[in-house]
Amino acid sequence: MNLHQLLRELKESNGSKIVLVVADGIGGLPVEPGGKTELESARTPNLDALVREGVCGLHTPVLPGITPGSGPGHLGLFGYDPLEFRIGRGILEALGINFQVGSRDVAVRGNFCTVDDKGLITDRRAGRPTTERCVAMSKKLQTIQIPGVEVFVEPVREHRFVVVFRGDGLGDHVNDTDPQALGVKALEANGADEASQKTASVVNQFVAKAATVLRNDAPTNMVTLRGFARFPKIDTMEDVYGLKAACVAVYPMYKGLARLVGMDVLDAGASLSDQVETLKKVWDKYDFFFLHYKYTDSTGEDGNFAAKVEMIERLDAEMLKIRGQNPDVLIVTGDHSTPSKMKSHSWHPVPTLLWGRNCRPDAVVEFGESYCLRGGMGQFESKYLMSLALAHAGRLSKYGA
To answer: Which fold has domain 3-87+233-392?
Structure first.
């Protein structure tokens, strides 16, 4: 019996409310030895108050030493083993913009990037262009045709777009063309099997034509592709946990993750304040609320320690309003760590706090990595966070006689 089978047997409905606030990439590192992380440097009186009344720890998104992408990081938080449910980013991006993916489709996440006159990448995110420019560049890519397949290109926001290749016999075991480095060319696509090699051939044709179409449009003068994926079969959170769940997210990919596990994706506005207002408006309609906050991650990826501290403080300022809804369980964590020092996702365990009416408080009084290391939840795999949330909400019956 796996964890989901067990939770199906034990689940109970009692009208309790669970809120999961995901501050993307919240975990960090000190810039200098003996210094503080971004979270420890931030002034967070409201999060600290929750810690004093609740329990905290550190979760490992996948396994020790494994750096997660956003997809595995969130699936773990939703209680889906990221080693069992391997979901390509392309599907998540497509679902995030509500593109209907079919059985003949392979979806992939695209990035506009900047290359020099030798084709070497100088900026992997093209300087984070406006969404308006993303739309304009995507329209140019929509003119590309590949014999034997249909090609759909849709803008997401900033430097992100989605490509869906539709045709017979396409596979999704294709490597990313993003080398994740500067000063090198985009990688050639290769397939791990015959069907995927067919996809790779299509991809290489698409990228070559994109380079021609965009050659005069610096900084958005080239593309890289990541996360090739077909649509997976996955049980919903209502099936497994008995929860009617809502997603309150701004960025499309996280809406896609939510749709994948059966959440209703709500109009969340454009800011954290808008998201909290949405949460308040729909409070009586749902049992579980996933509120995603992006900017702790993007500032970390930019290597901006001070800006990440500021984004954490902005989140803290909204926590009183969220707590004011009187949830039965309130969890604050991240899907992974994004230390400003590294300018990337990392494998470091992620600080986690759980506040609830049935908590056994620990001795921790501040929310931060070194404090959570001493917390009552210890270090645990993220896939167990949902069972802890359900238990604290009184939604699990006793196991066995």
So the answer is: Alkaline Phosphatase, subunit A (3.40.720)
